[in-house]
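Friendly challenge for the regulars: who can give me the structure tokens for this chain first? No prize, just bragging rights.
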Amino acid sequence: MLVTTTGRSKKGMKSLNVIPRSVMIKGAGDIATGVAHRLWQSGFDVIMLELAQPLVVRRTVAFAEAVYAGSAKVESVTARLCASPENVYDYLERREIPVLIDFHGETIAALKPATIVDAIMAKRKKAVQIDDALLVIGLGPGFTAGKDVHAVIETNRGHNLGKVIYTGSADEDTSDPAEVAGIGKERLLRSPASGIFTPLKEIGDTVRAGEVVALVDKTIIKAATGGLVRGLLYPGLTVSEGMKVGDIDPRGRTVDYCTISDKARAVGGGVLEAILNRYHLGKDCSFSRH
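First reply, four minutes later:
Bragging rights claimed.
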């Protein structure tokens, strides 16, 4: 039985049979969205925190898009931009994931989630602390399980993708993107300068190597490889030199760019495992209304 977060009766509930239902996820990019989707479909109440201007590339599979569009639907699950922490319960009642603009986690103290997942994927130590919740989970490098967080989920593609690490850290960041169809760093689009990003293509378009895909102010960005445009930053964002602004999948039209990736699903499975492992005995830990 899961703890309710909406004030419904808990009469007769035995604490040893309870799995806390409240999960707050920092970040709402494509990997965070895969985690949120898996937890939501498993019966957990999820709240997501994002920047006022999310720097998310794979926007068709990211709940961060709700910040720009007001709402975002990924595989039948809807997330909606939420104005304040006081409104999250209304969204949860309507079975929508609330997305708060609160990247620094200032609402943690007010909402008191049982579980916090740091899904920023910044590949270095984050502001999240092990005592921020009963269970704190970090995705990828930058965390040490047992020190910074209770558990770390491996995000590096390969044999251990999605593995839950209870002692130690995930693989170190190599700064090299995983190869797809034999193509590595060439599939990424990076800003050649600082300025305002203007895409000239849309996610889902196919491009040829050498084709202009976007502008940063008046400086062009060309595709280094042909394929399908799987991700692009939101138009009008200010970017810095070297920043990732897009992603081209060399597999072309065979790519499904509108559903959660295998990597995000695997990481989501790892988070679900960590939660069930931690709350094996269970505790009454719903979101606080106070």
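The longest strand covers residues 45-50. The chain has five helices and 17 strands. Your move, everyone else.
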